[in-house]
Amino acid sequence: TSTRDSTTIIMNIRCARTEDLMNMQHCNLLCLPENYQMKYYMYHGLSWPQLSYVAEDYGGKIVGYVLAKMDEETDDDPHGHITSLAVKRSHRRLGLAQKLMDQTAQAMVETFNAKYVSLHVRKSNRAALNLYTQALKFQISEIEPKYYADGEDAYAMKRDLVVWSKQQDIAPADPDTFYKSVKQEPEKKK
How high is the pLDDT of residue 190? Predict the structure, then answer.
């Protein structure tokens, strides 16, 4: 539950299902300039069914979502990536984006041992930047020039899930490897 103007608003956050994908796409089209074909939603839903979540109102209508995946194209530690996050204007400032992001982060840790999660955000998106840096403790890792189709630059951002999961008392999939420090280059012999 979330409160707004002394009225209680009942919301439900749950794992996304295949039948939610069209409504997630609709929410995306209403909220964001970056839009995806249905096959991209299907790819996420089939490959990482544990990682995408929806927020629905008391009537079961989807008012927000997070579309997430594991990044498999790297030699780095296991980590997730947020492909898209959106909450309809009518349901913003209720903490839904943070709840959706925390839910997917927890699933990344518990299922895939993800040590961090990454995302991209437009440099001009001040509201999202505030959410990511203040509420969710993401840090800017680099600037990617002309990342978006319209030529706007993106901030590449990362959130440390090892520290966060300790604070939240979340058990990782494999504690032995999860709590080990980042891989180090072997020392060169002299």
Answer: 47
Backbone CA torsion sign across 13, 19, 22, 25? positive
Q: How many CB atoms lie within 10 A of CB 112?
A: 19
CA terminus-to-terminus distance, the chain = 62
Which amino acid, residue 25? Answer: Q
Instruction: Answer whether 0.70 is exceeded by the pTM.
Output: yes
Strands 62-70 and 53-56: antiparallel
How many Cβ atoms are within 10 Å of 165's Cβ, its own excluded? 21
Contacts 24+ apart (CB under 8 A), 59-64: 60/12, 61/23, 62/20, 62/23, 62/24, 62/26, 62/27, 63/11, 63/27, 63/87, 63/88, 63/90, 63/91, 63/96, 64/27, 64/88, 64/91, 64/96, 64/97, 64/100
**Tens of pLDDT, residues 41-99:** 899 999 999 999 999 998 899 999 999 999 987 777 899 999 999 999 989 888 999 99
Mean pLDDT of the chain: 88
